[in-house]
């Protein structure tokens, strides 16, 4: 009986199906099954949860997820050329693989996946950050996110106050989740090789956020603070309206500080102060 391990090498699959990675879809295929299996293992125990994969392409990571014992994999693929390849994997998946043709930015992941699902994906470069923000808004539905980004984006996710990469992405991710880079991949690992290295980030939702705050308000305050990151907060926060000095005083933050120096908890305090000032 044919199984996952009996499928042909990915390079042969790509050649036989005429799959060339398309720049417009942000595609860079990871063909080393040892690497895709390692990424699947980094996601944790998959045997008792649903797994969402975005942009499976020729299915290298899909194979790794199934081989790791994932109870159910929902693979969302926008490129119709890849559907025939994924159907071949589906045929030997014992009913554990569901392939959805569509755009992950509009896919109803909460309605389609059981609570406690894990997201594991080699994200297309052109939609990685928008997808991450989408999942942050519904993070309580997921047990973890294990996502591959360009190395630069990964560094922005895990950055700390004072780091050059510290900004809105680090604050919003760090407020809601514990974030760690768990794997680095050089450009040569992909076909075709991108111009930059990549990294896998593992995000685990926090049981308690880093400071009480409304997510939408926090996002607005953080965006205003970093929009003019070289300026002091008393100036950069003017775009919110109201009195930034009063807001900063309520949050007990020196108005001459810059956004890059604030801890996540201080941004949460600013968000609460902004809401209080607007009430």
Which secondary structure elements does this structure contain, and how are they paired or packed?
Blueprint: H1 10-17, E1 29-30, H2 33-42, E2 50-54, H3 60-67, E3 72-77, H4 83-90, E4 97-101, H5 109-112, E5 117-122, H6 128-136, E6 142-150, H7 151-158, H8 168-176, E7 177-185, E8 190-191, E9 198-205, H9 215-227, H10 233-236, H11 244-250, H12 264-278
Parallel strand pairs: 2-3, 2-5, 3-4, 5-6
Antiparallel strand pairs: 1-8, 6-9, 7-9
Helix pairs in contact: 2-3, 8-12, 9-12, 11-12
Explain this structure to me?
The strands form two sheets. Strands 4-3-2-5-6-9-7 form a seven-stranded mixed sheet. A two-stranded antiparallel ribbon has the order 1-8. With 279 residues, the protein is of the alpha/beta class. α2 (33-42) crosses α3 (60-67), α8 (168-176) crosses α12 (264-278) and α11 crosses α12 (264-278). β2 (50-54), α3 (60-67) and β3 (72-77) form a beta-alpha-beta unit. It has two domains: 4-205, 3-Layer(aba) Sandwich (Rossmann fold), CATH 3.40.50; 215-278, Helicase, Ruva Protein, domain 3. It has helices spanning 10-17, 33-42, 60-67, 83-90, 109-112, 128-136, 151-158, 168-176, 215-227, 233-236, 244-250, 264-278; strands spanning 29-30, 50-54, 72-77, 97-101, 117-122, 142-150, 177-185, 190-191, 198-205. The protein has twelve helices and nine strands. It starts with 9 loop residues before the first helix and ends with a helix. Helix content is 37%, strand content 19%.
Quick structural gist:
The protein is of the alpha/beta class and 279 residues long. It has helices at residues 10-17, 33-42, 60-67, 83-90, 109-112, 128-136, 151-158, 168-176, 215-227, 233-236, 244-250, 264-278; strands at 29-30, 50-54, 72-77, 97-101, 117-122, 142-150, 177-185, 190-191, 198-205. The chain has two domains: 4-205, 3-Layer(aba) Sandwich (Rossmann fold); 215-278, Orthogonal Bundle (Helicase, Ruva Protein, domain 3).
């Amino acid at each position: 009986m044919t199984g996952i391990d009996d499928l042909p090498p990915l390079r042969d699959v790509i050649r036989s199906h005429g799959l060339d990675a398309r720049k417009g879809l942000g595609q860079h295929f990871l063909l080393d099954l040892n690497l895709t299996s390692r990424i699947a293992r980094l996601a944790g125990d998959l045997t008792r949860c649903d797994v969402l994969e975005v942009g499976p392409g020729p299915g290298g990571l899909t194979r790794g997820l199934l081989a790791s014992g994932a109870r159910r994999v929902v693979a969302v693929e926008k490129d119709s050329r890849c559907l025939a390849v994924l159907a071949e994997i589906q045929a030997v998946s014992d009913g554990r693989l569901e392939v959805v043709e569509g755009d992950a930015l509009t896919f109803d992941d909460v309605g389609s996946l059981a609570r406690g699902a894990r997201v594991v994906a080699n994200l297309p470069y052109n939609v990685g950050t928008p997808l991450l923000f989408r999942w942050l808004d519904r993070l309580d539905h997921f047990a973890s996110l294990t996502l591959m980004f360009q190395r630069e984006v990964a560094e922005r996710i895990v950055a700390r106050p004072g780091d050059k990469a510290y900004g809105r992405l680090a604050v919003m991710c760090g407020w809601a989740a514990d974030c760690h880079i768990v794997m680095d991949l050089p450009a040569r690992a992909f076909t075709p090789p991108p111009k930059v290295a990549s990294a896998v980030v593992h995000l685990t939702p926090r049981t308690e956020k880093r400071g009480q705050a409304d997510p939408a308000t926090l996002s607005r305050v953080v965006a205003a603070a970093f929009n003019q990151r070289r300026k002091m907060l008393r100036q950069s926060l003017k775009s919110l309206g109201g009195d930034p000095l009063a807001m900063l005083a309520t949050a007990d933050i020196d108005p001459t500080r810059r956004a890059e120096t604030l801890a996540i908890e201080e941004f949460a305090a600013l968000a609460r102060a902004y809401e209080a000032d607007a009430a």
